[in-house]
Specification:
The protein is an alpha/beta fold. The chain contains 12 helices and 12 strands.
Length: 330
């Protein structure tokens, strides 16, 4: 599978398996199926609550002699309740223990904002009215600690997730070790061309989460947060995507993933279905014609195409580092 050379000097496969919304048991089976199908890039996070199962799958794959640790690219993330300098190494170490690894290939600051942890230390604290307890965030001090993880050998590459252009530019202005990756929501309905250009100019590699439009998000947000007021773009069933897929004898998912990978944007589609995991990997033996690229570019809905705006965290829009304030004003 194709890879991209990061600014850190390490290669990241352009296709990975995402595990957001994957229940622990499903995540373990999905990761093992992905590794057996040839995936070498696995993405998880502390807040997904499945790092242990992801680690179990990786260890099962290694122990059966199917491959070596050096072949893998494993990403996890500093949680929003750990966005304090003193917590960076603590949470990284916990993730390494859960994943049963000696080092991470990529460690990301998951959110640009910070929540106070509750008494369990595992979830955000809430006020009596259900809003989350917000804390100030010092990106510079957090990044200093992220850099220390690289210098100590615990992490090979570092980056951020869900940062907007302004936040990324600020980070670039003081970083000694530049962020190698920015992971954001990116798909044909939310293409973020200005952010893409900033990343190209700054040698920051983009990773697209929800590259297929996250079809499971509506149920996820309803069941977990009681929200049912979202108008999500259904890009997998868009007639223009289907027409291209049928003409090229591909699945709509393959077309949507190839649209991004052909632009050297990494993708981490989530699936727990072994057949879909295999199908999603079959995107490196064809190219989208330029006219189809342009048709897919025309599907961009701008901010209206966003699925994950974090407003399910009640009160988060009041945080100074909430990244989508400008979009709420449109």
């Amino acid at each position: 599978m194709a890879s991209k050379l990061l600014s850190s000097g390490h290669y990241m496969p352009l296709l990975g398996l995402g595990t957001w919304q994957a229940a622990p048991g499903d995540a373990e089976k999905a990761v093992l199926a992905a590794l057996e199908a040839g995936y070498r890039h696995i993405d998880t996070a502390t807040v997904y609550k499945n790092e242990k199962e992801v680690g179990n799958a990786i260890q099962s794959w290694l122990k059966c002699g199917a491959g070596r640790r050096e072949e893998l690219f494993v990403t996890t993330k500093l949680p929003h309740i750990g966005n304090r300098p003193n917590d960076v190494k603590i949470y990284c170490t916990k993730s390494l223990q859960s994943l049963q690894l000696e080092y991470l290939d990529l460690y990301l600051v998951h959110m640009p904002f910070t929540f106070k942890p509750d008494d369990t230390g595992e979830a955000p604290a809430k006020h009596n009215d259900g809003t989350f307890v917000l804390e100030e965030t010092d990106h510079k001090e957090i990044w200093n600690e992220m850099e220390s993880l690289v210098k100590s050998g615990l992490v090979r590459s570092i980056g951020v997730s869900n940062f907007n252009s302004k936040q990324l530019e600020r980070l670039l202005s003081f970083a000694e070790i530049q962020p190698a990756v920015l992971q954001v929501e990116l798909h044909v309905a939310l293409q973020q061309p200005e952010l893409q250009q900033l990343c190209r100019n700054s040698c920051v590699t983009l990773t697209a989460y929800s590259p297929l439009g996250s079809p499971g998000s509506k149920d996820h947000f309803k069941n977990k947060y009681g929200r049912n007021d979202f108008d999500f773009p259904d890009i997998l069933n868009d007639p223009r995507v289907i027409e291209i897929a049928e003409r090229l004898k591909r699945t709509p998912a393959q077309v949507l993933l190839k649209f991004l990978v052909q632009q050297e944007i990494a993708v981490i589609p989530k699936s727990v279905n072994p057949q879909r995991i295999i199908e999603n990997s079959q995107i490196f033996d064809f190219e989208l014609p330029q006219e189809d690229i342009e048709r897919l570019q025309s599907l961009d809905r701008g901010p209206k195409g966003r699925i994950v705006n974090f407003l399910f965290f009640k009160g988060v829009e009041c945080h100074a580092e909430y990244p989508f304030v400008s979009e709420l004003q449109q």
